[in-house]
Specification:
The protein has 397 residues and is an alpha+beta fold. It has a domain of 105 residues. It starts with a strand and ends in a 5-residue tail after the last helix.
């Protein structure tokens, strides 16, 4: 799981450190930096499969306004620390990425180049061992097979092309000589960000290149259709949980008139069918979030934990329906990490028994700040008022 994330010179974030636990919520006023932090996490995950420019476009929508405008010009820096079960052995990974922003007369206005990238591992055969070193395109990769047998040996960049517009992780493939580094790559590649849109959730359009939900919720009808065909036992759990909102729900049915469209229907015991067009916004969002929770619980394809970010899950939804989802995350030892953002005092109240997961984001000049709660003080205040009320009165952090 992710233990530490440090970001420097990324929009409103200057030398900001975030230490998440299993289930987390980011709270704070508008324009405090919550979404910037989520965007930075999303960006890093995308760099494992895209160029820097494509990752920035996907995560923040533009390439020209990346760095903090109030700070001296310099590179954007990212550091993470995480602990993952590589080969069944707890292994600590340290990864750092620094990239430069060069202003050029192009359509985007700026181009991005990797300045420095280092991945280290500790655990099993490794002790703060550099698996990857990339300094302005001069790359060294650890030959992990040779190292286990004979000591350290590195493959150097003369053997392959490393243009600076993307990270070395992006170019790694799962080879025996770089298996541990590739394992880490798959971990950050699996990070997922969601800001669910009801119009996208309703769409029957199929995104063939996407295996599951897109960040806005598009491709849900196809995702549920695949679940119906490939994991019916998970679909059964999904229907059972959605009955909290729609007690008459009996099953899902589907219509796939062509390869580009899948229509999803909810059917009751009298065989009445209701399309996604007649389902409320909140119910659609609940369906998507329930799917994300259950697919994580039943994941058999990757032994490493995943990180899922969901913006404002309470939108259009009675917060009482979120409580059983939250309790399932908190009490069942869920293997994956979750990060939520919210403005709802009622959703914040759900964290009164896991205060270590509350992170207060405050606006500042020139940088946002992230504050942890004083847990003992907050526990005493809980006897007088709920957590959401403390946030409303600006008593937290």
């Amino acid at each position: 799981m992710l233990k530490r994330f440090r970001i420097n010179n990324f929009r409103s974030l200057l030398n900001v450190e975030f230490r998440p636990v299993g289930v987390n919520v980011l709270i704070g006023p508008n324009n405090a930096g919550k979404t910037n932090l989520c965007s930075a996490l999303r960006f890093l995950g995308l760099t494992a499969s895209q160029s820097l420019e494509d990752a920035i476009r996907a995560s923040v929508g533009e390439t020209w306004n990346i760095r903090n405008v109030y700070a001296p010009r310099g590179p954007v820096e990212i550091e993470i620390e995480c602990s993952l079960p590589y080969g069944g052995v707890p292994t600590d990974f340290d990864y750092s990425l620094s990239f430069s922003v060069h202003t050029e007369p192009t359509a985007s206005g700026q181009t991005l180049y990797v300045s420095k990238e280092i991945l280290k591992a500790t655990g099993g055969d490794f002790t703060q061992t550099e698996l990857v070193r990339n300094v302005e395109g001069r790359v060294s990769l650890l030959d992990e097979v040779w190292t286990r047998k004979n000591g350290g040996k590195y493959l150097h960049s003369e053997e392959f092309s490393v243009p600076p517009e993307a990270t070395m992780l992006h170019r790694l493939y799962d080879h025996e000589a770089t298996r541990c580094a590739s394992f880490f790559k798959r971990y950050i590649q699996s990070w997922a960000y969601y800001n669910l849109s009801p119009s996208a959730l309703r769409s029957p359009d199929v995104a063939q290149e996407a295996a599951g939900l897109r960040s806005d919720g598009a491709n849900m009808t196809r995702t549920f259709f695949l679940l119906h065909n490939e994991q019916p036992y998970v679909e059964g759990k999904l229907i059972e949980m959605i009955r909290a909102l729609e007690p008459r729900l009996n099953l899902f049915t589907y219509s796939s008139p062509d390869p580009e469209h899948v229509h999803l229907y909810m059917e009751d015991r009298e065989r009445n069918r209701f399309s996604t067009q007649s389902i409320s916004d909140g119910t659609l969002r609940f369906m998507a979030m329930t799917y994300l929770l259950l697919s994580g619980e039943d994941s058999k394809t990757d032994s490493s934990p995943r990180l899922t970010i969901i913006e404002e899950p309470e939108n259009g939804l009675y917060v009482g329906h979120l409580k059983p989802l939250f309790e399932r995350l908190r009490t069942r030892g869920h293997p994956h990490q979750f990060i939520f953002t919210t403005h709802s005092p009622y959703f914040i109240d759900l964290f009164d028994s896991c205060l270590e997961g509350v992170h207060v984001v405050k606006p500042g000049a020139p940088s946002s700040e992230i504050k942890k709660l004083d847990i003992e003080k907050t526990k005493k205040l809980l006897a007088e008022m709920p957590l959401g009320e403390m946030h409303f009165r600006e008593m937290l952090g």
